[in-house]
Structure formats: C-alpha cells, structure tokens
Amino acid sequence: MTMTFSPLTPQFAAEVAGIDLTRPLTAEQVKAIDDGMDRWGVLVFHDQRFDDETQLAFSRNFGELEVSSGAEMSRPEENRLRPEMADISNLDVKNQLRAADDRKRLGALGNRLWHSDASFRVIPAKYSLLSARIVPPSGGNTEFADMRAAYDTLDEETKAEIEDLVTEHSGAFSRELIGFPREIYGGEFQEKLRPVRHRLVRYDERTGRKSLYLSAHIGSILGWPIPEARAYIRDLTEHATQPQFVYAHQWKVWDLVIWDNRTTMHRARRYNDLTDVRDMRRSTIRGEAMTVQQAA
Length: 296
Description:
Elements: E1 4-7, E2 14-17, H1 27-40, E3 42-45, H2 52-59, H3 69-72, E4 86-89, H4 103-108, E5 127-134, E6 142-146, H5 147-152, H6 156-162, E7 166-169, H7 171-177, E8 196-199, E9 201-204, E10 209-212, E11 218-221, H8 226-240, E12 246-249, E13 256-260, E14 264-268, E15 279-284
Parallel strand pairs: 2-3
Antiparallel strand pairs: 1-2, 3-13, 4-15, 5-13, 5-15, 6-12, 6-14, 7-8, 7-11, 9-10
C-alpha cells in the first residue's frame, strides 16, 4: 500500500492514507512523514488503533520524548497515564469525570487559548502527536493555525519591526488569562513556571521559511512595557488566526493528528466536559535547540 497525502486546505494540513502507524515503520516511511510535516505542518491519520505503548513507540521515530508538563507539575499518584503521555482528557485518576470546580479541570481550560505546546520550555517542543480514544458527541474540535502563512502575509514594515524581538513564555501567563493569579497557579511547582525566552520570528533551515512563534504563554517582549507588549502580541495573534490560516479538525475515534509546534498554533474548542467524556492522549517530541541563548 502506498502512502498518499491529500490537502485539507490549499496550503496547510493534509490527510494521509495508506499506512498503519501501529506497526514498525521503515526509514523511508519515517522520512516521508517528516517531509510531509515540512510541507503541510499538520498531518491527519484516520483509524490508527493505538494503545499507549504503540503510540510511544511510533513517536520515538521522530526524536526524544518529553515528559508531560502535567506529570511534572503533579504527584505520581495523581496521574492517570505514564509520564511521557500527556492526559488531554476530562477524567481523573479513577477515570471519573472531573467536577466543575476541579482544579485540574479549570487549569486545562487554558488549552482553549491559541498556543504552541511547551513553548514554556527553554528548548520548546518539535512535534505533538494526539490520539483520539474517546470523542464527545459534539464539540471538542481542535483548530490549527499556519504560522508560516501568517508571517508571509505581514507587511514589510511589520516584518522588519519583529525580526529581532524576543518574548518571554511561561505556563503561568496563559493561566493568568483565564483567571488564575500568577502567584497561585502551579502551587509548589513554581520553579517550572520561570519565564523562558524565544524569538518571535523563527527561521526553518529545512524549508527556508520564516514563521511567527506565538502562544498564549507569552507574557512580555524584552525591552517593552508589559501592557504594550501584550497588546501587540494580541494584534499579531488576531492576524495569525484569521480563517484563511486555520484548519479545524473534527475528531473521530482512532484519529491521530501530528503537528509541528515550530510552525503552527492550535487550540481546543469547547464541549460539555461535565457530561461527555473526551479522552485524548498526546505524546510530544522534544525540540532540538533553543531559539535564543538563555540568560544564566
């Protein structure tokens, strides 16, 4: 069977058929997926019947796995899944629906903001791979925004202004946007929330293209007053998430979607998480380099 790539939008995101990702892949198949990621940024695979072990085994074809931030910022007995698997669900450790006032449920609402996974790390994430195990009857879609096309359509004056800007990212900044006081979110894990620095414009040596590196995790631009910086980041985010740059994925059970965090943003959409189960499991590939040299 031959692997095929079918565009989901003219320039962004593609559906891939003709491959079973739960089986060991050849080097040629891995390279074809990597090349597809360079071309499309988001790849959709249907009917990939992963369990956690086979998903992690497939993910390792693309680099070193990250430990999920949820596992890092909780005690082992609080985690439903193994540390390398991010639990993108509304279930607690007993597989019960989380209550309306459950702290983890409320923190997870930050996933509904436009963001790039793990941009709060000194070395930010490369790929994210999200497997749909249970999907709600309505809602819960994921939207992806093409940061390369968003950059390409900026006017030249704006491109020159942002070329050398450096931003600061922290998971606390995004949770502050949904109402968590910065000094409270994260509890005893405050060290994990220290801001890290990234370039606002990233250059991809593989493709020769530039992209915006935006995220709800951005709280400041170095050298700018914070109110001005946050207003400017909001302006850029509004530009980058216009409908012409966005692909919305409506999940089916056993879908696997892979996206490149270096060239895309994404957000989850609302669903009734107090009555309907949504069980998604994400493995994440660690990035390969810092975007700027970090201060000691």
